[in-house]
Amino acid sequence: MKRLYVHPKNAYLMWEDESPFFYLADTAWELFHKLSREEAEQYLTVRAGQGFTAVQAVALAEFDGLSGPNYYGRVPLHQKDGRYDPLLPDTEGGNSYWDHVDYIVKAAARLGLFIALLPTWGDKYNLKWGKGPEIFNAENAYQYGKWIGTRYCEEWNIIWMLGGDRPLENELHHQIIDAMAQGIREADPNHLITFHPSGESSSVQHVPDRQYIDFHGIQSGHGTNGLENWRMLRRTMQTEAKPCLDLEPRYEDHPICFKPEYGMWNCDDVRQNAYWALMEGVCGHTYGNHCVWSMNTQPTDYYRYCWTEVLHHPGAEQMRHVKALRLSRPYFEFRPAPELIADDHAVMAHQCAARGESYAFAYSPLGQPMRMYLQFLCTTAVKASWFDPRTGEEQFFAVVPPRETLFAPPTSGKGRDWVLVLDVLETS
């Protein structure tokens, strides 16, 4: 079975042959709950073709995921004494709820996609908001974790994602997550585990110093604080030396600050979060479209489109370029390089840089000039190119000496972001 590992330097993920794995996920929380098998195959085929490497989906879904049936009229759990019981999964017959989950997991595997599988949405243990109901305690969380871990331990394309957008606010919440993780890990010692936190927080705040956490995640969220996802990522990686990424940044077509009257986040906003994160040395990134994660079929002011209409929206198509840029140079030596750039800009204009041994990237989210200190990169000349995040095209424009240099991107303004690519030239 193919396996993922954490790289020995603790920053990135890799395959067992030590080749790099860049976690580029799409968000499809309601995938198992709402789509037919044919629709799921359609969705997965598109995302695989766009270069995604993973899909995030929930077994016990948020939108009435216990009592609301899936496409085939089945619910995930049977009831006992009038309550949905995590120890009574619907597995009877050839078209059970969990048979449907099995089918989609295997369909994703055929396309080379991981399923980042949340065993449950967070409202099933902390009904801070949502439908719920709360059904977990420490004992049944352990048993459910062991059951679902056993069911999928032989599927190569599983990454476990605990949490589910609710905070851990008391000892019981922590006991539930720890117990579920224990059950999963006992049944499945080979797949990686992470944690999806609530909005504008990090998994390191909720599950610090947990041996079962292989890589951390933040949710920078859908408000204006999401403009500083790079700060949250930096703090998380400074707190614990584990890989990290933004598991829920601003979604394309999502109401700004959850208010449709403010407008919608678009592909320009999505790209900013992705490249800001990249320059912090993350192990990947997550994209989301508001109408896809929900698998919406009835457009409203809050969900503007049907999910099938937005599969090819610009943000989704442009995410492949993030992965391509990151994989284009030596991978595991990459690290943040604030020493290479003068960043004195306001939040939305935050400029940042990262480097390897003989190359560097620098990001200007609004196409504003970047003052670079090339003398800290090398002592020889540097080949400079512009990388267009909208098209993935890289265009050489100059050879420059290793000194302080001001680089002006080809265009500027909102939606005119650019990556400066610097390759050190060997001496002749």
TrEMBL record:
Domain Putative collagen-binding span(s) in chain numbering: 336-423
The keyword Coiled coil is assigned to this record: no
Any one GO molecular-function label of the UniProt entry: hydrolase activity
Ranges of residues in domain Apiosidase-like catalytic: 9-333
A Pfam match: Apiosidase
UniProt cross-references to SUPFAM superfamilies, sorted A to Z: (Trans)glycosidases
Protein's name according to its UniProt entry: Glycoside hydrolase family 140 protein
Organism from which the protein derives: Candidatus Avimonoglobus intestinipullorum
Lineage of the species this protein comes from: Bacteria, Bacillati, Bacillota, Clostridia, Eubacteriales
